[in-house]
Design brief:
186 residues; alpha+beta; two-stranded parallel sheet; 4 helices; 23% helix; globular
């Protein structure tokens, strides 16, 4: 089922998420819905707060970038109760966008290597290291679990330059090809 994506300004996007328990009801259905919603919106990652949930869950699928890097084909992952425990390596400024902040793309500084502990879709514990684009996408979605949106990483002057666009998103003055839930409708 395709769910509405919560837009910038929705309070849920500012909340820290909560771990889920092993007996979480209908986890597979939720994960399927998250992937379906993400695909409909042409995204490569989606975190539970973006669909109005306080659950510490994120999904990614890098397959759309397989033409640039064949190792991304079929690279579909689920991260449950995730914790980034280390960020290191060089910091790079790379342009990012977000399904919750449509129409805005900005350069965001992030470390190029992370170590993350999480449960996979079968609730098996994992402790893995990611680098490059994989690390960037995971960090972007992980920020949502911490109540952070990518525009929070922008320096003051840059954020001021996009303030009017952010205000339009809050008002629901956006054109999206996917279902959204804005703070207020036009």
């Amino acid at each position: 089922m395709i769910l509405p994506i919560y837009l910038y300004g929705q309070p849920i996007l500012r909340k820290k998420t909560k771990d889920i328990s092993p007996d979480y009801p209908d986890l597979k259905i939720l994960l399927d819905n998250m992937f379906e919603t993400m695909y409909k919106a042409d995204g490569v990652g989606l975190a539970a707060p973006q669909i109005g949930r306080e659950d510490r869950i994120l999904v990614i699928d890098l397959s759309p970038y397989a033409k640039d890097d064949p190792s991304f084909m079929g690279y579909k992952k689920v991260f449950i109760n995730a914790r980034i425990i280390e960020r290191d390596g060089e910091e790079a400024n790379v342009e990012e966008g977000c399904l919750s902040v449509p129409g805005i793309h900005e350069n965001v500084p992030r470390k190029n290597r992370i170590r993350i502990q999480y449960l996979d879709e079968n609730l098996h514990p994992r402790d893995e290291v990611y680098e490059g684009f994989r690390a960037r996408v995971i960090q972007h979605e992980y920020d949502h679990l911490e109540g952070i949106v990518f525009v929070d990483h922008l320096l003051g002057i840059r954020k001021q330059m996009i303030r009017s666009k952010l205000n339009k998103i809050i008002k629901g003055e956006v054109n999206c090809s996917y279902k959204v839930k804005a703070v207020s409708k036009k």
